[in-house]
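#structure-requests
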Amino acid sequence: MPTFSPERLETLANSLLAAGGATEEESQRIAHSLVNANLRGYESHGVMRIPNYVDALANGAVISGAELTVVKDSGTHLVCDANWGFGQLQAERLLVRLAGKVADSGLAIGTMHQSGHIGRLGEYCEAAAGNGLVSLILVNSHGAVVRVAPPGGMAPRLSTNPLAIGVPHGDTPLVLDFSTSATAEGKVRVKKIAGEPCPEGWLLDNEGRPTTDPNSLYGDPPGSILPMGGQQAYKGFGLSLMIEILTGALSGGRCAHEPLNAKNGNCVLMLLLDPDNFGGQEHFQSEVSQLVEYIRSCPRVPGVDRIVLPGDPERVTLAARKAEGIFLDDENWEKLVELSERLGVN
């Protein structure tokens, strides 16, 4: 499999996005975001997204140069329209605006609709934690794509509806970032492009039977991704349902219903909290540190070297890939090569 330094891969990503019609600001910001996802092991949110982003620009699903419009504004909240701009830029703009409000009130909550795909949610939690802020981020697919069937159902009704929670903790923030389905849809897409089977427990075919064939998810009629926790996981699906409402309905965007939305993107709910305005920053950090130490000191079963907490796997992968480079499977790399040839990028 081809392996690249982060710098080389980011240069290529930047060039592809710029040749596809993104502005300099957009191509640089998105390329950095995608490569950082690869560095942390999130291939589903990495450079494999570039052909989709370029196609979205070409067909008008994403608008280059779109501004973030503030629809409602108070001391503690924002309602924003992203005008179908690139999600990574618009989500960063929302985060910066909310962080400015936190300085006065200790908390800020914002929603955003009509946004392109905002990428890896943990990225924004890491940024917030770097400023000493607790964060919660939820998204849906803007009522455009459904991938997860309800328990007992054979047809998908919700998107994978991820959530992320970030907690500052020195140089090792706790960042929980996961889809409320058994896996992210992008991971199934990676397997499909690579021609590889999915692990058991990810998918159901269009008759509700377990399958490892990634193509079944994209069939007509389509299969579905299992809810987090399995086929009868009412809690996982229930959590996804509430995220659908708190993002699509609350933001002024779209929930999943017929007819599905023609444009695929994200509705976003973002919450920031400053511990200093609650129990106090010093108390917060002391309690988090003692909790982390207490959990890590847990006796381990044979064969387990370390207790793993949210954010640990990403840091381990980041260190390894900074040293060894980022590898791409041949099939996903070939998609980038094909796009390079089409756009005239070396």
